[in-house]
Amino acid sequence: MGRLVIVSNRAPSIDGSTDSGGLVVALKDALGKGGGLWIGGAPEQQEAPSDSIVWHDRRDFSVGLVEWEPELYRDFYLGYCNSVLWPAFHGRVDLIDVQGRYAEAYATVNKRLARMIAQNLREDDQIWVHDYQLIPLAQELKALRVRNRIGFFLHVPLPDLHTFMAIPDWQNVARWFSAYDLVGFQTSRDLRHMINIFQHGLRGELRANGNIGIDGREVALGAFPISIDVEGFREFAVKGAAGTAPAPLPRLIGVDRLDYSKGLPQRLAGYGEFLEKYPGYRSNVSLLQIAPPTRNSVNAYKAIRAELEHLAGRINGRFGTVEWTPVQYLHRALTREELAVLFRYSRVGLVTPLFDGMNLVAKEYVAAQDEDDPGVLILSQFAGAAEEMSEALIVNPHDASDIAETIKTALDMPLSERIERHDALYRKLKKHDVTYWTSSFLKRLSPSPVSVLPYHRAI
Ligand code: ADP
Ligand code: G6P
């Protein structure tokens, strides 16, 4: 039986301790017993890049760490990944920062990584590459005559052709996708965009089986909405809540990386409008926003941080009293256990990104609720999660009045309706959890089984 080889920009910690961020969280939950490999970068250790993988054995799988020269990594990660691809894929073409050295660094990292991976492969291994940092990897591996099956999953959204064309050399970027055997997306929206980019951007041909014929080869495509370890997260919430007290006031909660795609200023504007319009709620509700900063040296991220601090200060200045702070704003990462309890004790979960591949926070919020007295999820129509989670209260995150009215509806919602909506959402989550996501992707990638399933969640 072949091994599963996962490749991502961020490797999991070698001692099994927690990392935040959707990709790490999801894959750590998904990759289980059975001797799989997970190869990824160790950017915080940038010391002596060796152009070979350094292996660490965890009890459940082996982690292969790769290190890059700091300057190369900067141009790759902060540059091409997060100043070109991330803004383009999230529809923020105004934030794209094109520098020749960024594209070069992206190509170099992917080429060198492919060489290192190729040296460690066995014939029957299957490779599963993750996310926008590593799109060219299959093309590079195939150039090294690697014949293994290679799948790719895009965790972020894929924009429409028009937006995609804002990426310099976009046809080349689209061709990188076509070198995989299977490419998976979060939603049918993203899948449609890929088909359109292939058909109208590269003259690809849509076959009867749904595959795309392109440059003399065929690539399979599919939508595989990612999920969470529903039971595990619920257990954190139930156990944690047993020893702690609920919040003194009905609480709204937001938990997001401090990213411009998350719609945080718009969310605060909506909350401000709610307090303005419904004075009866002043001193009777609170908003807890947890937003750890990421990608700090990119200007757009510095700007969002300053904007958010300003907005939170304005709301607190305008409505706050000596006894009551309307917005509590935390910049740090919490443990999953802490988050689960906070979610359980929050009457409303605010998940209002302007554009998001899936958004795992939406799923975690639902999983953490008390089924006899559940909170209400307010979900952006532009989060991938909205395709499945239609029983949430769906909002337009650009519209402050819509957010304000929906907060009111959520806070006033009778228990019977809260239970009904939560029950429907929770059932879907249970049916399509992270194990389902992993196995459905791998089943499509190859008919022959690999040795990592079922997953083991207590890592
Ligand atoms: P993204 O992948 O864009 O960051 P997601 O919502 O899909 O967004 O995933 C974010 C993940 O990171 C979730 O599992 C969430 O619980 C976790 N996370 C976000 N903020 C924090 C935080 N402050 N502390 C701990 N975990 C966090
Ligand atoms: C999103 C991306 C992941 C990334 C994570 C954290 O979930 O899809 O690929 O790892 O954000 O971002 P960071 O830049 O800190 O890795």
Write the layout of secondary structure elements.
Elements: E1 4-10, H1 22-30, E2 37-41, E3 54-57, E4 62-66, H2 70-89, H3 100-118, E5 126-130, H4 137-143, E6 149-153, H5 161-164, H6 170-178, E7 182-185, H7 188-202, E8 205-206, E9 212-214, E10 217-223, H8 230-242, E11 251-255, H9 264-277, E12 286-290, H10 299-319, E13 327-330, H11 336-344, E14 348-351, H12 360-368, E15 376-380, E16 393-395, H13 400-412, H14 415-431, H15 434-445
Parallel strand pairs: 1-2, 1-5, 2-4, 5-6, 6-7, 7-10, 11-12, 11-14, 12-13, 14-15, 15-16
Antiparallel strand pairs: 3-4, 8-9, 9-10
Helix pairs in contact: 2-3, 3-4, 6-7, 8-11, 8-12, 9-10, 9-13, 11-12
Bound molecules: adenosine-5'-diphosphate and 6-O-phosphono-alpha-D-glucopyranose.
Adenosine-5'-diphosphate is lined by residues 20-22, 25, 255, 257, 290, 292, 333-334, 339, 358-361, 364.
